[in-house]
Specification:
Blueprint: H1 7-11, H2 14-17, H3 21-34, H4 42-50, H5 55-65, H6 69-78, H7 83-95, H8 102-114, H9 118-122, H10 125-136
Helix pairs in contact: 3-4, 4-5
Length: 163
């Protein structure tokens, strides 16, 4: 991996400019904290940018901020991460995502093709078969086993009547 972008260079990028003011402060503080000694402090950056009341709140916020796609793009620029490396990281995260949708898989496949990684994957017979099977598996709703449940017997409304 090549040299990291300095904070000054990073702040001039289009991606950095698209962040909100607080996101820019978070990224600037985060990069500044680690540029000299490689000890990046996301919790401290969250406390500075968002005024978190304590380190635990800042820790939760920092996790969320480091998952933000715009912040990831800016940090990838800082670390000089290639598009292929960034995509492989994205796939690694997706593998562990229990809520991955078919649309997200399709979007990642498209990105894979745009990056030129699709052809090498298509050559792998197992992967190609899995992709084809996956695209055909638009399963309808599950069928129930056994007879349908019976409706509970309806009762006539009972009115309170004096006798």
């Amino acid at each position: 991996m090549s040299e990291k972008l300095t904070l000054e260079e990073l702040t001039k990028t289009r991606e950095f400019q698209q962040l909100t003011e607080k996101q820019r402060l978070f990224v600037a503080t985060y990069v500044e904290s680690g540029i000299n000694d490689n000890k990046y402090d996301a919790v401290g950056a969250a406390m500075t940018a968002y005024g978190a009341k304590n380190r635990n709140v800042a820790r939760i916020m920092s996790y969320s901020l480091l998952q933000n796609i715009r912040i990831i793009q800016v940090l990838n620029l800082h670390f000089n991460t290639t598009p292929t490396e960034a995509f492989l990281t994205q796939i690694e995260r997706a593998i562990h995502n229990k809520r991955l949708t078919p649309q997200q898989v399709s979007a990642m496949w498209l990105k894979c093709q745009v990056l030129g990684l699709g052809q090498s994957l298509k050559k792998n017979k197992k992967i190609r078969e899995a992709i084809e099977k996956d695209s055909k598996d638009d399963k309808p709703a599950r069928k129930r086993k056994g007879p349908p449940p019976e409706d509970p017997p309806t009762k006539e409304p009972q009115y309170w009547v004096k006798k």
